[in-house]
Structures are given as C-alpha cells and as structure tokens.
Amino acid sequence: MTDVALIEQLKTLVEPGKVLTDADSLNAYGKDWTKHFAPAPLAIAFPKTIEQVQAIVRWANEQKVALVPSGGRTGLSAAAVAANGEVVVAFDYMNQVLAFNEFDRTAVCQPGVVTKQLQLFAEEKGLYYPVDFASAGSSQIGGNIGTNAGGIKVIRYGMTRNWVAGLKVVTGKGDLLELNKDLIKNATGYDLRQLFIGAEGTLGFVVEATMRLDRKPQNLTAMVLGAADFDSIMPVLHAFQNKLDLTAFEFFSDKALAKIMGRGDVPAPFETECPFYALLEFEATTEEVAEAALATFEHCVEQGWVLDGVMSQSEQQLQNLWKLREYISETISHWTPYKNDISVTVAQVPAFLHDIDAIVGEHYPDFEIVWFGHIGDGNLHLNILKPDNLSKDEFFAKCATVNKWVFETVQKYNGSISAEHGVGMTKRDYLTYSRSEAEIAYMKAIKAAFDPNGIMNPGKIFAL
Ligand SMILES: Cc1cc2nc3c(=O)[nH]c(=O)nc-3n(C[C@H](O)[C@H](O)[C@H](O)COP(=O)(O)OP(=O)(O)OC[C@H]3O[C@@H](n4cnc5c(N)ncnc54)[C@H](O)[C@@H]3O)c2cc1C
Fold it and tell me: What is the mean pLDDT of the chain?
C-alpha cells in the first residue's frame, strides 16, 4: 500500500484533524532532545481514547507499520525518535488527571499529563509528587514511565517505578491490560506492570497510570557546599546522611558552574572558587535539624573536605540554589553535548570517577568536559561539549570511539551504561556492557510475547 493510502486509513481511526503530516509537525514530533538522528516519520496520530489507541495498534499489525509512542520528547537517548517512516502516536489530547483518591493518595492520569501538571495537582490536594527534574515542565507521565525517570529526589523517593500504583496498557498485539489494579499488596504472580516501566514503548502503550502521591515535605532547605576535590564529596555525603534524612544530594563541577554564571541570571552561591560543588537538601522541620546541618557543615570544613558553603534561608534562596544545578542541562545544550549517563554503587563512585576521568583526560584532551549528576545515587552525567570547529557528525564519531573505554570501565565496576536516560538508539550498541547475552535473550523473548510483529518502537533498546 502507498504511504498516501496508509495515511488515509489512519485518519479513519482517530477524530478528524488528528493526523498530521505537514513538515513542521513531522520534524517536531519525530525527534527528542538528542540531535543524532534526522526525524522522518510518516505521520503523527493523536488518539483521544483508549479505543482509538487499540484501533491504531491493530491497524499497524495488519499493515506492518511501526509505531513510536511519543511523550514530551525530552528524552536523552533517542527513544522517542522516529527516523524511519514510523507513525508517531502522541498523547497531547489524552492529558487529564481523571480521578483523585484521598485515602489511597493516588491520582489517575492519562499518559499525556505533564509531570509538572501532576506535581501541581498533588500540591492542590496538599500532597506531593516527588519525581522531579529540569524537564518536568515538558515531559509526560507516559514518557516518565517509558524511561522509569529518576531525577533530583531519587535519594529519598526512588525512581518513577516507586510511584506507579497501577497501569492500563495496550500491548503490541492491541490487548488492553489492567496491571496491578492500584493495589499495595498483590501476590498473584508476575508483576507485568513493572515490565512496562522503563520499556521505552517497546512492549506497548501506557494509556492510563495511577500514580501515588506522598506527604508534602516541610520547610525544604538547601545547602551548596564547595568541595576541596572530588574525593571529598563522598565523605561529605556520608557525614550528612549520618545526621539528616536528605531529600537530594547532587554535584557539579566548576566548569558546570561557570556555564551557569555565564547566563547572568543566577546569583553565585559564594565567592570561593572550588573544583566541585555539592547541593544537598533536607526538611528543616525543627531548629534542631537546622543546627545539626550547620554542625555537620562545620565538621566537613574542619576535615578539609569543604572550603565554603551557603544554606538557604528563604524559598527564593532555595530556588536560586537549585537553579545552579537544574539549569545545567539546558544551558550546555547550546554546545550540542555528547552525553553519558553512567552509574555504579555509591561506595564505588570515587574510584570509578578517577578511572573515567583518566580515560576522558587522555582521549578528549581538547574537549571541554562538564561533570554533574545525582551523585547521592551513584549517577554521574559526563557531558562532552562540541568545539565550534567540528561538525556534529565528526564530533559524535570521535565521542563514540571513546565510549568503548568508558563502558569497559562501567563494566569493570558492574555499573550501568544508562542510569536513567534509557537505551533508545544512542546506547543500544553498548547494551552488552551492562546486560548479559542471556538477559538480552530473555528481554527479546518478553518483547516477542507482547509485540510479536515488532511494531512497537523498533530499533529502540535492541538494534533492528
Ligand atoms: C533538561 C533535561 C533534564 C533532564 N533531567 C533528567 C533527570 O534528571 N532524570 C531523568 O530520569 N531524566 C531526565 N531527563 C530526560 C527526560 O526528561 C526523561 O527521560 C523523561 O522521562 C522523558 O519523558 P518524555 O515525556 O519527554 O518522554 P519522551 O522523550 O517523549 O519518550 C521517552 C520514552 O518513553 C516512550 N513513551 C512515551 N510515551 C509513552 C506511552 N504513553 N506509552 C509507552 N511509552 C511511551 C517513548 O517511546 C520513549 O521510548 C532530562 C531531560 C532534559 C531535556
């Protein structure tokens, strides 16, 4: 069948006007935040109901058309990219919080609910949705589930997985499954809900998600500490964790801070220049907690781990300190960064970082490297900035050659080649550094069970 005929059929499955094929839409909906692949979808479909999603999947199976589930397209692994004539299925018209249950503390969300929208909904109810990161204003719950998104509060609240009470999914065969039915306790065999979390849309569509909400944190207070060297950051983490329940522990390098200062709209934390900075946050519920934080800070200074520091005294100061960390990704995106999002156990972070730093220093002597990340979770973001004189393709090719050494080091430490950004297309060739051949074979068998014709997001996680 011709493309034109396929598009005409697709139009009969959704409401009038809910299939787009104009160049701007194909370009916008065919890509995520990565810049590695040129978008080239066949069309964009916007279902408004679960039945319409099922109809699209059944049609795609009949016509052997590949489908790409699309959220806010803020992904950093090209998992939502449509570069091969796929139909992108976008949830912009399935974007409502459908119900709230006060006693279960849950919100039933359509997949297109924006992460921030759920956070604000929780706030209106006097509650809290804790999964948070810089792209929360654009990313969607369906996409967050697709990537099992982490972010800046994982040290206390865990990943998106921890907050999914139940899911409705349409599998690659077109079946509608209701998974876990929002129960806290449910010991009835395999928990299929968990398979769809982090599946990057390769098993089917999330068409409804019941998300758990939590107690609202009290008087969140942040500290930014300037560390003497990288080796000082982990003892600082341990010292604070021994005294306080942290809600965040992030780090960034002097180069990251310099980029933020270059924007001109964020105040410097303090004057002392340090090679690394830690941002930690806790609930200052009582005077004693704040005093314990200050005493721990003094201890860290006495030990020579910390050179300077500041503690937020107001909501405005809290926001300003967070900008130092939260604005990094967006600010460096100007330099088309090549990103690695790697993790090891917390205990191994110092040795691991030294090894990685040596590799990067040897192989990227001319490139500017910006380190930051969720160090309290053992998660480091290694960003290599593109020099102006290199083309994008030359630059990415150079970076890819060094990946081998970076990922061999990840493997040596039993770490992950993708802590929270997913595999998508940018990391799929490196999956064996983190998952065994046997594991990958089981993963492919699971995909085949849910998606026997391979129509769901082909080429993501595994090569085509
Ligand atoms: C500035 C910036 C900061 C970021 N910081 C973090 C961070 O701290 N932590 C973190 O984890 N991530 C971070 N990210 C990455 C990104 O925001 C997350 O991966 C997010 O979860 C992606 O959501 P999305 O809606 O944009 O999904 P998309 O990029 O649209 O899609 C992601 C994946 O989910 C699939 N998908 C989308 N909708 C559905 C659905 N309804 N059913 C099934 N599959 C679906 C897609 O096919 C794709 O495989 C950051 C990104 C940016 C740009």
Answer: 96
Report whether residue 457 contacts ligand 1, using a CB cutoff of 6 Å: yes
Instruction: Give 185-209 pLDDT, tens digit per residue.
Output: 999 999 999 999 999 999 999 999 9
Residue type, 458: P
- pLDDT of 148-185, one tens digit each? 999 999 999 999 999 999 999 999 999 999 999 999 99
The whole-number pLDDT of residue 208 equals 98
| Rounded Cα–Cα distance for residues 453 and 2 (Å) | 20
Give the number of other CB atoms < 10 A from CB of residue 62.
12
Q: Which residues pair with 226 in a beta bridge?
A: 277, 308
Q: Confirm or reject: Cβ of 134 under 6 Å from ligand 1.
A: yes
d(CA 305, CA 405): 30
Amino acid identity of 324?
Answer: L
Q: How far is the CA of 73 from the centre of ligand 1 (A)?
A: 6
Question: What domains are defined for the chain?
Answer: 3-92 (3.30.43.10), 97-215 (3.30.465.10), 220-329 (3.30.70.2190), 336-438 (3.30.70.2740)
